[in-house]
Amino acid sequence: MPYHPPLEESNVIDGLRVGYLKFFGFWNVINDYKTTGKRNAFINFHFYSNIIICTPFIVLQLICYFFIDMDIQKAIRINLHFLPAIMMGGRIMVFWFRIESQSKLCNLIQKDFLHIPEYKMAKACIIYRKITRNANILCILAYIVDFSVVFSNLCIPGTPVDYIMYHKGNIFDVKTGKKKLLSAWYPLPMGESPYYEIIFVYEAICLLIGGIYQPTYACLFYQILVGLHAQFVVLGYHASTMYDSSNSNSNRNLIDTESKCNSKSNSNSNSSLRKIAHEYIDSDMNKELYSIIQDHHKLLRQSSDIQIAVYSSDWYKADVKFRKSAQLLMMGAEKGVTLTAIKMYPVNKETLMAILQYVYSTCALMSGLLEK
């Protein structure tokens, strides 16, 4: 990729908090890749260490059905911790293999992305702060929820070893044996020392990795989407307040930035939402998906409003070349920007309701089987 200038915190859109990116090292990862075109030592270590740690856990839970007695309740209990591990691995791999796209998408959180004229920046900053306020609150809540779940599990282990090895049915009926952190099976005498201690430390590491990096990746992808939404709102404001007179450079910037936003949104759809179809059970993911859908509807509305914004300006007073470009832009803006999951499923409320209906039907079926 051609090298680009690094991100600067002073140039981040007003109100958006990116301190978590610096604290967990992703700010340097993105900037190093933008300036050198290479992944730095931190992301290399992060990727390979997580793959080494997560792969045995995932593989063993896939094959455990052939080695221990299993019923529906026990399978659900094991999947409760198994599916988030797959989700975490998927996010790491998406970021690793799509780091070039991620680095480009981070330009969306910069104030100078649209090259808004100086006399309009005060109003643009107000728009940025209004949009990013809710994004900051959701990111803070994501960390609070994840850290609370992780540390409560670390302090109060709740999975008896005997239940995983020998029992079925309700986990709370098992009162014997040592307790560990995750509902996971290993081909070892899990209740004996030193295997129990080794497994306990291994599961604690897995929990800490998930608790730290699950919300970090979620917030990174979510803030890019919020940045795209904010840029469309500012672009709409810029277009609606644009007058011809002698401001031809501003007109050219409008066409250029609209094209950039459309290309960035398509890339964002492919990179940050690719894994949505794989995460339908985890309750935290459902909250995250709902937040993404809410912002997608805002994005759809704002991208469609560009047509009205351009039409409301004095585009018809400009030169012939600009008038043709403005007409093409308005025709292209008739259909707003849409996001899709794995290039097939539209990310909207109808999709969310279909997912919830499927989950409800599955739970009702399993409940009926248990009653029988």
Give the radius of gyration.
25 Å
Distance between the termini: 60 Å
Overall, the morphology is: elongated
- What percentage of residues falls in helices of 4 or more residues? 55-70%
- Would you identify the regions where 5 or more consecutive residues have pLDDT less than 50? 244-252, 257-285
Strand content: under 5%
Q: Number of helical segments?
A: 12
Mean pLDDT: 76
> Major sheet, described briefly?
2 strands, antiparallel
- String of helices and strands: HHHHHHEHEHHHHEEH
Number of strands: 4
Spatial strand sequence of the major β-sheet: 1-2
What structural class do you assign from the helix and strand content?
Answer: mainly alpha
What does this structure look like?
This protein is mainly α. The protein contains 12 helices and 4 strands, in the order H-H-H-H-H-H-E-H-E-H-H-H-H-E-E-H. It has a two-stranded antiparallel sheet. Helix 4 (72-97) crosses helix 8 and helix 10 (283-312) runs antiparallel to helix 11 (320-332). The longest helix has 46 residues, at 195-240. The chain is elongated, with a radius of gyration of 25 Å. 34% of the residues are buried. Residues 244-252 and 257-285 have low confidence and may be disordered.
